[in-house]
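Minimal example, chain plus adenosine-5'-diphosphate.
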Amino acid sequence: MKLVAEKPFLNKKIMYYHELDSTNIEAQKLAKLGAAEGTVVVADRQTAGSGRLRRRWESPAGQGLWFSLLLRPTIAAADCAQLTLLSAVAVTQALRGLTGKNFTIKWPNDIMLDGKKICGILAEMELAADGSVEYAVVGIGINIKMAAEDFGIRLAATATSLYLATGIVYEREQVLKAFWNEFVQLYSHWQQHGFAFIRQNWLEYNCTLGHRVVIKDNDEEIYSGTAEAMDDYGSLLVRNAAGESISFNFGEISIRSCSG
Ligand code: ADP
C-alpha cells in the first residue's frame, strides 16, 4: 500500500566514513553535538556494528549499506518504539521496489527473504529531562553484495544479500535513495497521523503472525506460542498452549534516561 503525495519535511545530510566502530554510536555523538534531524551516518565498514542485546552485526567493507539516521521526532517517548516498525516497512518497500522480490518482516526488526535475513534494524533513543524525546537513532544494515562465500559458516545458513537474491550488483547509493524515498513519506505521515497506516503496511508484509514463536530473554527461552496479532501500539500478542495470550514489547529498544 502506498501513500499519496504526503508533503515530506525531512532534509537529508549524508556523512560518509571509511570506518566506524558503529554508525549508531557516531550518530548519537553527533546528536549530542546538536546535529540536525535528517543527518545520515554511512560507513564503508563497522568494526563493532551491533544488533539487539549488543549482538554483533557483521558489516564488511563495501558489501552493504551500513547507516544510521538521526531523528528528532515530536512524538511521545512511548510511541517511539514504533520507529523500528516504521523503518522495517520503509526498508521492505524499498527492497521490493528495487528488486520485485517479496521481502517480508520478522517481528520486530528483521527483513527476510525465503527465511534468510537481509537487513537488521536497531533503534535507540535518548530522553530529555522532561521525558520528551531528545533524539532517536535508527541503525540499519542491509546486505548488498555478499556472495555465499562472503558470509562466515554461521551466517551462510541464515543470511542473504541483494546480490544473492537477484544476481544483480546494486550500489549502496541506489539502496539508500530507495529507502529514503519510502522513509520520508512514512515518517511524515506517522508524525502527523499516527501509527495506524504503518501498522496496516506492517501487517501486509509480516511473516510472523500465525507462526510459532519463541520469546527469549538474554538467549533464555521465557515463553512460546503462536503469534496472533500485533496490537495498535506495535506489541506482539502470543498465545501459548494453555490458551493464555501475552503481549510482548520490543526487546531491542534501549530506553535510557537523561542520566544514563
Ligand atoms: P535477532 O533480531 O535475530 O535477535 P539481532 O537484531 O540482534 O538479531 O541481530 C544480530 C544477529 O544477526 C547476530 O546474532 C547474527 O546472528 C545475525 N547477523 C549478524 N550480522 C549479519 C548480517 N550481516 N546479515 C545477516 N545476519 C547477520
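Confidence is low (pLDDT under 50) at residues 252-260. Residues 51-52, 55, 57-58, 109-110, 117, 120, 141, 143, 155, 159 surround adenosine-5'-diphosphate (CB under 6 Å).
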